[in-house]
């Protein structure tokens, strides 16, 4: 059973409409973080209802129904309301928290723990034995996870230092017929592009388009080594052109690179004002056919003229430009050239440390051995014996002797028998919380108030979690969302 050991004393002074100031701190073996909540500048918390209504304000409390048939109550503070507003829990779609993570989180020794149910937690691995994994977290103290629930352990970062994250609106973006649909109710499943030129539409932190020719772009100061990531969902045949390191916001001119994506392949083009455009080769994307969604990452090394493509975290292709790096600017642009609908969100541009993940060679069904993937792309199969004091003790099949590796040299560990079970749909009444640092946690919310969430699921009972660990929380996961929830009908 997963257990937590909260070891903090909280002295709370609560003022309605303001965030909490906590005198004590949460201390968990090297993770010492004050509990004062930090709202993101210029952003408000929002609550969205299943009917499409949205209110700004601040989450005050969650009180579950005590008897069968009794409603859960979500209390919400709004600046124009005399008293807090009480919403039926059964009618809440999501709460957007917009907290910033604490400013002094540890930046090293952080691991992502991938669980069998599809959740992912971040923290410092203090120990792994044949039975359990112990994880030290800033948001819930120590967590103990049964080893059989762990699918993989990967290197992770606790704090986002991204150069750009969004979209959070249309400000800074440009493109023909770009529309902002925030605050506009859209009852149709598809928003047709009107006018002579197709364009992208913005709503709820995402861009949408339903036709060919739509362009949207912005200036971002790219470093010499960059990671460019985005989520893409599509319906029908899609073709997306991604222009990066460009000196013009134009599709077929200037100096840049152009990654052309569709449901079957990815092709990288080199664009030069002097020499025109030329293909640097294609790679198959058969793995995403039928999925309708994926996360795409470009790792760019300007000095080595190398570009690497990851799809859902897996290495797909690495190109080296024999003519030298073509990009001469700081423009990032997305252009639709297909007939299908697309949703584009979670765009992140960040500095890159140069590490390239090892190609994913896992097959369907359980693995017989643990797989250790090193940061320098080496790999070995064998048995993961233990993890302790930021070191991994591993027995490779080739030598059958214990081999000790520092945690910082490891990119990922895939545990034997990973993948033997498909993630199940959460039980009725569960919520899905999205961490600010990436990853999710599904649980039954028992209460929310005074700077803490009490939660439980099939793995733990009465764990206490800090709300500022999450960027948003989705409620009523089994409820249908109307067309007003997403203008194109994407999930």
Radius of gyration: 24 Å
Distance between the termini: 32 Å
Helix proportion range: under 10%
- State the name of the first-level CATH class of the largest domain: Mainly Beta
Structural class given helices, strands, pairing? mainly beta
Number of strands: 42
Shape: globular
Biggest sheet, in brief? 10 strands, antiparallel
| Number of structural domains | 2
Number of helices: 0
Give the rounded overall mean pLDDT: 81
Low-confidence runs (pLDDT<50, min 5 residues)? Answer: 1-34, 360-365
% residues in beta strands: over 45%
Strands ordered across the widest β-sheet? 10-9-8-7-11-42-38-39-40-41
Looking at CATH, which topology of the largest domain would you report?
Jelly Rolls
CATH architecture annotation of the largest domain = Sandwich
Topology:
Layout: E1 3-4, E2 12-13, E3 21-22, E4 25-27, E5 32-34, E6 38-39, E7 45-49, E8 54-63, E9 73-77, E10 85-88, E11 92-96, E12 99-100, E13 111-115, E14 120-128, E15 132-137, E16 141-146, E17 150-155, E18 164-166, E19 179-180, E20 201-203, E21 206-209, E22 215-219, E23 225-235, E24 239-246, E25 256-262, E26 265-272, E27 276-284, E28 293-301, E29 306-311, E30 314-320, E31 331-336, E32 341-351, E33 370-374, E34 379-388, E35 391-396, E36 403-406, E37 410-414, E38 430-435, E39 440-449, E40 452-456, E41 463-465, E42 470-474
Parallel strand pairs: 19-20
Antiparallel strand pairs: 1-16, 2-3, 4-5, 6-12, 7-8, 7-11, 8-9, 9-10, 11-42, 13-14, 13-17, 14-15, 14-34, 15-16, 17-37, 18-32, 20-21, 21-32, 22-31, 23-28, 23-32, 24-25, 24-31, 25-26, 26-27, 28-29, 29-30, 33-34, 33-37, 34-35, 35-36, 38-39, 38-42, 39-40, 40-41
């Amino acid at each position: 059973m997963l257990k937590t050991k909260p070891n903090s004393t909280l002295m709370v002074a609560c003022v309605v409409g303001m965030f909490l100031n906590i005198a004590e701190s949460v201390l968990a073996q090297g993770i010492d973080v004050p509990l004062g909540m930090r709202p993101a500048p210029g952003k408000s918390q929002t609550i969205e209802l299943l009917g499409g209504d949205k209110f700004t304000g601040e989450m005050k409390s969650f009180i579950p129904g005590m008897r069968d048939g009794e409603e859960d109550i979500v209390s919400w503070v709004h600046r124009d309301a005399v008293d807090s507003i009480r919403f039926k829990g059964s009618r809440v779609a999501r709460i957007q928290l917009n907290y910033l993570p604490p400013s002094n989180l540890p930046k090293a020794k952080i691991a992502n723990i991938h669980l069998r149910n599809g959740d992912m937690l971040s923290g410092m691995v203090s120990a792994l034995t044949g039975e359990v994994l112990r994880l030290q977290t800033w948001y819930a103290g120590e967590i103990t996870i049964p080893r059989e629930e762990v699918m993989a352990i990967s290197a992770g970062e606790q704090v986002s230092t991204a150069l750009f994250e969004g979209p959070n609106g249309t400000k800074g973006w440009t493109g023909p017929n770009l529309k902002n649909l925030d605050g506009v109710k859209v009852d149709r499943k598809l928003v047709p592009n009107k006018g002579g030129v197709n364009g992208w539409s913005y709503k709820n932190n995402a861009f949408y388009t339903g036709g060919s020719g739509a362009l949207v772009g912005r200036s971002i100061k790219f470093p010499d080594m960059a990671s460019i990531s985005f989520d893409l969902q599509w319906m029908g045949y899609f073709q997306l052109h991604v222009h990066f390191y460009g000196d013009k916001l134009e599709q077929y001119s200037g100096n840049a690179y152009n990654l052309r994506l569709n449901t079957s392949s990815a092709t990288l083009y080199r664009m030069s004002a002097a020499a025109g455009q030329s293909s640097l080769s294609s790679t198959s994307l058969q793995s995403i056919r039928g999925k309708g969604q994926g996360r795409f990452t470009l790792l760019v090394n300007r000095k080595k003229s190398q570009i690497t493509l990851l799809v859902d975290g897996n290495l797909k292709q690495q190109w080296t430009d024999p003519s030298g790096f073509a990009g001469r600017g700081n423009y990032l642009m997305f252009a639709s050239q297909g007939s299908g609908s697309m949703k584009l969100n979670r765009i992140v541009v960040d500095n890159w440390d140069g590490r390239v993940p090892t190609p994913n060679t896992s097959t369907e069904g359980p693995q017989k051995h643990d797989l250790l993937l090193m940061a320098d792309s080496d790999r070995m199969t064998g048995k993961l014996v233990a993890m302790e004091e930021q070191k991994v003790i591993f027995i490779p099949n080739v030598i059958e002797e214990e081999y000790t590796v520092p945690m910082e040299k490891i990119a990922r560990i895939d545990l034997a028998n990973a993948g033997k079970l498909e993630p199940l749909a959460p039980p009725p009444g569960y919520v899905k919380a999205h961490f600010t640092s990436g990853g999710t946690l599904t649980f039954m919310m028992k209460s929310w108030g005074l700077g803490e969430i009490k939660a439980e699921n099939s793995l733990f009972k009465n764990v206490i979690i800090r709300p500022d660990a999450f960027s948003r929380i989705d409620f009523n996961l089994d409820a249908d969302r109307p067309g007003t929830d997403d203008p194109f009908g994407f999930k």
